Amino acid sequence: MAVKPTKAEKKIAYDEKLCQLLEQYSQILIAAADNVGSNQLQNIRRGLRGDSVVLMGKNTMMKRSIRLHAERTGNTAYLNLIPLLVGNVGLIFTKGDLKEVSEEVSKYKVGAPARVGLVAPIDVVVPPGNTGLDPSQTSFFQVLNIPTKINKGTVEIITAVELIKKGDKVGSSEAALLAKLGIRPFSYGLVVLTVYDNGSTFSPEVLDLTEEDLIERFASGVSMVTSLSLAISYPTLAAAPHMFINAYKNILAVALATEYSYPQAEEVKEYLKDPSKFAVASAPVAAAASAAAPSSAAPVEEKKEEPAEESDDDMGFSLFD
């Protein structure tokens, strides 16, 4: 008969396993495991098998192991994990794509009934329709102010009713009614709270950003830097082209308002003195178009005259008849 390991031996084994995982993996997902059963967790481990490892444990043990491992290795980046170990959480060590792993974890959600005293994670709405309950069950609906009517010997809900709001605790009447209606409004699974990547921690929403989103945000940042630089007259690479253009506009405005001039300003002054030159600039184009029209029509007229002369010869007349 195998001897069961003592608590001290279990702690030592757990510490060795956690330290080994910290050495092998540089990417970790910190996930909340509230209301997640052992069978559900086993399915998640099976689904992630290959490039990811799920490790659960007491927060005090994980914090102690991480702190001692950071001291032994001198890698203080591991200490960024300690503030994240709050509540019922687990660690998912992975070498795969963080977004794909996060999406895989979110697939394993299991429906759960509304238990008394449970804080609702979402709004619960009872839909209208036939409930299949006999008229003796109307007391549940009356207590919860749900409008009903008797239809063919069963209770029918007239309109949809928001039974429980997000953040409220589930009462005994709400739980009993949902159980009778066969509604399992909640679903639970591992929920990724934070992402750890080579010492950096960030929100999992970052994983949903696409390349187009990054380009758009970068362009928005450049635009803000440019606006700020122009407002305070501080030169930056983004604002430099706009500053040169604005400076040239100022110089041109001074040249137009005074007798000072330079070649580029002379041309603008000429246009302002004689606006008709704007039309002169387009005159060569119009002249070329009008000249091309007669040249194309002339051969047509010549071709039309030739058949007319031939028709006179055919009739036997001459110019002297």
TrEMBL record:
It holds the Pfam family RL10P_insert. InterPro entries: Ribosomal_protein_uL10, Ribosomal_uL10, Ribosomal_uL10-like_insert, Ribosomal_uL10-like_insert_sf, Ribosomal_uL10-like_sf, uL10_eukaryotes. One of its GO terms (biological process) is ribosomal large subunit assembly. Transmembrane segments: none annotated. Residues 290-299 have a biased composition (Low complexity). Residues 114-183 form the Large ribosomal subunit protein uL10-like insertion domain. Residues 290-321 are annotated as: Disordered. The keyword Ribonucleoprotein applies. GO terms for cellular component: cytosolic large ribosomal subunit. The keyword Ribonucleoprotein applies. Belongs to the universal ribosomal protein uL10 family. This is 60S acidic ribosomal protein P0. It comes from Acorus gramineus (Dwarf sweet flag).
